[in-house]
Amino acid sequence: MFTDIVGYTALMGNDEQRAFELLRKNREIHKPVIEEFGGKWIKELGDGVMASFPSVSNAVYAAIKIQEACHEANAYELRIGIHQGEVIFEEGDIFGDAVNIAARIQALAAPSSILVSESVQRDLSNKNDIQSEFFRTENLKNVKEPVKVYRIFLAGIEPKKLKPPKLIKSSIIPEYEFDIHISYRYNDNNYDGWVTEFVEKLHQELGATCKDKLSIFFDKNPEDNRLQFEHEDGSVSSKIKSLIFLPIISQTYCDVNSYVWQNEFKAFKEQIKSEKLGNNIKLQNGNSISRVIPVKIHDIDMEDVKLLENELSGSLRSIDFIFREDGVNRPLLPLDDEKQGNSYRPLYRNQINKLANAVKEIISGIKQFQKENVFEYSSFSPTLTQIRPNVISTSISGAKVQMGEKQKPNIYLAWTSNDLKERREEMAIILQKAGFNVLPSVDCPADDEIFKQRAKEDIQKCLCSLHMLSGEFGRRFESEDNVSFPQFQFMEAKKKIDDPGSEFQTFIWIQPDSQQSMKPSQQEFIRYIRNNITRNMMFSNSAGPMQLVDDIRVVMMKEKVEVHDTKDTEIFFIFNQQDEEDAKIITDRLSLEYPVEIMNIMPDGEDEYREVSSQQIPKSKLAVVYFKYAADWALPFIKQIWKEVGGASSPTPLFFVGEDDPRSNLARNFKAPKVVSTIVPKDEIPAEVKKVYTTIVNLK
């Protein structure tokens, strides 16, 4: 605990005798109280006192009693700061980071107040007779991490409030006052300072994301005492003119009678109607985004979702900071990034980055608007022939470079169940970087009919769809509680596939970590999908989004290839040249009973061999990929060829078989729909192939 007499230095210069009297009085107040609560008087530091205590509560009780005694004496005012941590006692003194932090906290305190660190605050949670409130997060000198600071309430003693700094107009656009306006309910910050910390983290992230130094308006006062902006002419206004509005959507934010809703949220919406920029900003990729970016810290009631959508004309694109767990509905914290547990839980660090990138997009769009050079998005009729890789041709002699840019294909990224929202956002970013235009670009509508209409319209604009499924069934329709939103979108995509001559593709990706917690209704839905696999439909077992997107690009952006001379056969046997000698023995034995086509893949030209395989496999009843020494070739090869022949919808099963010598082959396997994988001795391989072949023929 550090204490300090307010204004002592000035007093020492004016009245030295009076200053010494205050020091004596200060000792008289401090020493008995410190001893009463088991503390240890360490030393005086000029006009301050440093003491240590055996517990947090003892230190705070002592600080409260010292302030009360000082108030009764009416001779001077004190600042007090308290922190707990490890210290080193040496020759009557103490050392350590905890000492430095306590001293820095004391310097932040207003006259007649007590400030404590978060570590102290946590240990006070069970002390009903000690009340506190969040003060602010502070970057303390010589302290690596920011420290959350709290103020202790003192009965009958009102600390002097520090005068807030005058707000300075600082937007990148001259006619605006700030770039970003943070709107929130005071109670969402009062408990643990969540909003204050969020603003600081956002400021830091924007500094690392945007070239411009963006300003943020954030008023720390309660709603009924929010600061008013003072203009140069002396007039004041509660309507801060900002480029971007960030409402912190909590369980209480959507209250139409609240000050925040009426004087901040609604006021901003009314204000931008008369501005040249308007409500939506056109981005360089042709999409548009609202100047209002909701930041959700709670899952909110459906009525509140509809209220928001109504105010935002349905264009709700929120960035969620929600800690999702059964029975829990609280804001995500930076400390949660260090916790192990639910893999669906988003990282605070990633969400801050997503928000900063969204802000950057809007700022870039505003700058483009200012130049009066808005990019127009040219629509096109989606056909596969329009999808081509970038064409690059060079001529060294003429020093010419010509580049033809391909048209981005539209992909429908289906709205997911609530637990996958952050994963869907991550997937959208990866797809965009891979050259796709992602639809829809906003959050899932709350209204059933609007959702159905939007889903149908966007699917019709796309060449393919991606459906990310977890163990959750997802939100159900009010009128059809046996149908979920994810299920409806899949059925609409299936309708498009079933259209005669349709080239539409659908990809289904069940999250790898959702199998153990699959709800019965979701199990039934996935079973339906598996039983109704058709052409142009593929299940993916990809371990991550990057691999999945690469698979989609292979299927969707594949150029027309040469047609090879293939013929119908019973067994198509594929092996690498490294295993030619052993493979010949196996195929000779098989050919005694079945027609066998073989392909010996040489070291060069794998792409061509892969193309021949993808054309021959559908004309075979069974495709076998065999390996002995070529395991490093075999596994990537079968994974790729499985995708190219349709994955789970492949007309021909694949048999991935390897020898058990060398023993390292035992770790090589590939589990996927329409794939059988095994490792056996070489002598048993012909019998294993026959067994798999016979099973397939009998099933057909």
UniProtKB/TrEMBL annotation:
Residues 1-106 form the Guanylate cyclase domain. It is an enzyme of class 4 (lyase). The keyword Amino-acid biosynthesis does not apply. InterPro entries: A/G_cyclase, Adenylyl/Guanylyl_Cyclase_3/4, Nucleotide_cyclase, Toll_tir_struct_dom_sf. Its EC number is 4.6.1.-. Keywords: Lyase. SUPFAM superfamilies: Nucleotide cyclase (SSF55073). GO terms for molecular function: lyase activity. Gene3D superfamilies: Nucleotide cyclase (3.30.70.1230), Toll/interleukin-1 receptor homology (TIR) domain (3.40.50.10140). PANTHER family: ADENYLATE CYCLASE, TERMINAL-DIFFERENTIATION SPECIFIC-RELATED (PTHR43081), PH-SENSITIVE ADENYLATE CYCLASE RV1264 (PTHR43081:SF19). This is Adenylate/guanylate cyclase domain-containing protein.
